Amino acid sequence: MKLTFWGAARQVTGSMYLLELEDDYKILVDCGTDLDRQKSTNKDKVTVAYSIFPFEPSDIDVVLLTHAHIDHSGNLPNLIREGYEGQILCTAPTLPLAHLLLQDSAALNHRLLKQLHNGNGHGKRRSKKKPKINPAELFLEKQVNETVEQFVTIAFNQKFKLTKGVSVTFIPTGHLLGAANIVIEVEENGQKKTIGFSGDLGRKNYPLLQDPHPFPEVDYLICESTYGNRRHKATGTPEEALSAIIQQACIDIPGRLIIPAFSVGRTQALLYTLNKLYTDHNFPPIKVFSDSPMAYQSTKVYQKFIKYLNKEAQEFYEENEELFDFENLIYVEKMKDSKAISNYNEPCIIISSSGMVQGGRVEHHVMTNISNPYATILMIGYAAEGTLGRKLLEGMRSIRLKNNDELPVLANIQSTDVFSGHGDRDDLTRFVKYQQPDKLRKIFLVHGEYKSMTDFHAHLIQEGYSQVEIPTWGQSYQL
Fold first, then answer.
1. What pLDDT, in 10s, does the model give residues 419-451?
2. Are 219 and 253 in a shared domain?
3. What pLDDT band is residue 393 in, cutting at 50, 70 and 90?
4. 128 with 264, same domain?
5. Fewer CB within 10 A of the end CB, N or C, for the chain?
6. Rounded to the nearest 5 degrees, what angle is found at the Cα of 170, between the Cα atoms of 451 and 82?
């Protein structure tokens, strides 16, 4: 069989791996959007015969989706539009979360298409800056609805037959509600081979989510490496970390705390932790604005799939009847209400997307408060290079506006990784160590910045794993 890496190769996003069996049965694992949008020379050298994909989508027999995040699911509507007619297998919670995220992408695409249309001489002056987006990639709600019709959900930890001699098992990995690591078992030419895909590895003791389950021994392992060269710094619990920051930002000083957070996953962890602070620790009531319509919808999905959450969350729900709703919490849906938060003069907490401060309503809150010394901006997750979130973390002193005015950064910029949904180097090492070095034929490192991959590669060599590869985009291996 042949394994080809069509995404997340020497970069973080765009997960997409094609497994081709001897009888020409083709399995696509994940079909994510390339958010990095850095087209390497390797990509340029590959002859792409189709408008988006470097393979014929109609030739794919089945798609396996590890979890809902856009860098793993975001190209599925394009795959369907280009001719894929098969099933998309995932866990039950992944379906509604992926639906929400894809709908959000379609709405963004609709706005981008209007901008491209207006920028080409239809009512507005032609833009001098060429868009980095290929219009052919911009699917709309119609394609999303068609995509969701092809989803089929399967249970965790139950072997599911794909075709004769081929089966798949989804194994809980934390990280996000419904997220899975995947094991594919293939029997061909009288030999049995197993291939493991890590998806995105979660971490232990994360709010709401189950710990990653043990992973079976496989012949080949595809392993993400987002945090392959670093450990999480936070040592306390999420409640302790958040409590200390709120005390400093909203109580000791009557200011406002702005938390950029992804709408699906991170916001639910924050709201649950705040609920626990208010319910179990008699925390003083402070107004909390959850400013993201998609966060509100995804919170309802979490509420629906309580049985998939960890034991602590289930027990908290049984005792309090609410996981996320508490006094002084306001869900903000309309844009005018979002902007009106600026007029609220009491200490408050604003949770809004996106987590990297790149697009979304949080940009307004950050820009409105960036020169306010009584404001605190708390970064709680990964921020990609070039995003405003990363620049703030790196200590930028001012923000230049479109009219060339500059706003000084006077707000207090803080960060914590206690809410990071990715496992760190120790978690990744623990995941790999389910495999015996003398039996594992090869490890492929994906889904990480190249420095993270090379450092984790060196670490695994020291741990006794000699067969470690860092594939390039489009590189194939015979398994």
1. 999 999 999 999 999 999 999 999 999 999 999
2. no
3. very high
4. no
5. C
6. 75
Distance CA(89)–CA(95), nearest Å, equals 9
> Residue 476: in which H helix or E strand, if any?
strand 476-478
Q: What is the CATH number of the domain that holds 13?
A: 3.60.15.10
d(CA 194, CA 454) in angstroms, rounded, equals 25
Distance CA 361, CA 200 (A): 26
Structural domains of the chain, count: 2
User: What does the block give as tokens for 419?
Assistant: 């809410």
What does the alpha-carbon distance between residue 418 and residue 236 come to, in Å, rounded to a whole number?
8
- 417 Cβ neighbours under 8 A, 6+ residues apart: 232, 233, 234, 380, 381
Of 154, 33, 147, 155, the closest CA to residue 89 belongs to 154
Find the CATH number of the domain harbouring 330: 3.40.50.10890
Give me 223's structure tokens. Answer: 């392993």
Give pLDDT, residue 136. Answer: 78
Q: Within this chain, do residues 177 and 320 fall inside the same structural domain, yes or no?
A: no
Instruction: State both tokens at 222.
Output: 């595809």
Rounded to whole angstroms, the Cα distance separating 121 from 115 reads 11
Same domain, 445 and 367: no
Q: What's the average model confidence in pLDDT over 461-478?
A: 97
Q: Distance between CA 243 and CA 252 in Å, rounded? A: 12
Answer yes or no: is pLDDT of 405 > 50. Answer: yes
Specify whether 72 is located in the same domain as 156.
yes
Tell me the three state secondary structure of residue 78. Answer: helix
